[in-house]
Each structure stands twice: as C-alpha cells, then as structure tokens.
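Quick start: read one record
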Amino acid sequence: MKKFVVEDSFWDIFPEVQIGIVCANGLKPTDAISPANVAKAARLLDHANEAARQWISSSVISQNEVVAVWREAYKKFKTKKGARVSVENLIKRVMRGNPVGHINPVVDVSNVISLTYAMPIGAENIDAVEGTFRLAVTEGGDEFLPIGEDQNDPTLPGEIAYLDDAGAVCRCWNWRDCQRTAVGDDTPHCMFIMECVDPSRTGDLRAAIDEMGQLAEDILGGHVTNKDFLTRAHPSCELV
C-alpha cells in the first residue's frame, strides 16, 4: 500500500504547518458526470469567485493576509524565480475582475474549495505515484516534466517539493505539477492535498477538507477512502 510521508527536513522549517488530505476512488470520467452535476459545479465555482472577495482587503496582492503568509513561507526555502503559492493566482484573478472559469468538474470543485477558503489545493493521480509519496527538502536534480511543457526542469538543492521514487511531483511546494501524476478527465483514484501555514486557520483547513470530500462524492461520483491531517506529531498516512 502506498504511503504519504512528510519528512523531518520539512518539519524542521515549518513545525506548525498542517496538511489535510482526502483520498477518493471511483471518480467518474468527465463525460459520465451528469449534466446536472456539471452545472452544479459551475454554479459553485461562480459562488466561490464571489466568496473569495472576503479575503481581499488591499489592491496590492502581497498585502492581503492570505497571500502574505505564503510569501513569508516561500522565503524560507529555495524556489525557482517567480514561483508563488498556487492560490495566489486565483486570488489575483478575482481581484482583477477575471474570475476563475470552468475547466472540468475535478478542477472546478478543487478551485471551489481553494477560492472559498483561500488555501492552496493540489490533486494527484494516486495510481501514477511511484513508491512513497513525500514532502521534503530536496537535494536537487529530481526529474520534473511540468504540465504543458516538453523539457525536464529538475528541482533545485534546498527546494521543498512533493516527490516520489521517480522524481518531483509538484515543485516549490505547491507551485506547479508534473505531467506524470496529473489528474485527467478519466482519473478514478485521486488525492486532494491542502496546506495551512497559519496556525490560527487550522479550523478552516478541516472544514475545507470535509467539504472537498463531500464534493468528491456528491459531484464527482466517487467515495472517500481516507481523510487525514498531517502534523509533525503525525507525519504520515496511507494513500488508499
């Protein structure tokens, strides 16, 4: 059985971070999701774009607290130039009046949760993970083929990344995913991962993970096989 392990090298930098994870299996292919559920996902996304405005208090993106805490976090490890937490781009789009649009139901419900709670979320194909799935400070050189690219872009020494036995899965913590484990229109077995760097918002993380699990069942037609929250005291879980 596959495992997700957050290594000590990560906790040494971020001892108070909490990471929520939902594993779901039996997710329906996009073309098998009912029109009613596709429409529901689109409506929820519209509402989430509006809900995200509650997190915006400044016209300067870096001065909004939900972004500022991540900007500070990204100063603590090596990153590729310009790398930012994934939720920053979503918040920026809302600020600019360019709301996050429909892509497919899996991406849509992920964006619903990310926008509603102003926290990053990632989705990966569990069946494509090779060996143990890890979050760690890298030694560099981990193979990484980004989504939409055709050139290897390996990790840097001192970078935090999600990794497996074949290379990097997501670079610069939660900035950019690889092609190899990307979730597609017909991926039945997924994990959804969220990170909270603000200790005062762990309640929001738990609510977000609960809601993500519910949407995976109600809209995507799957069933939740595991739900967990990783901390320094509880640094691993099974990917089932």
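The two ends are 7 Å apart (CA to CA).
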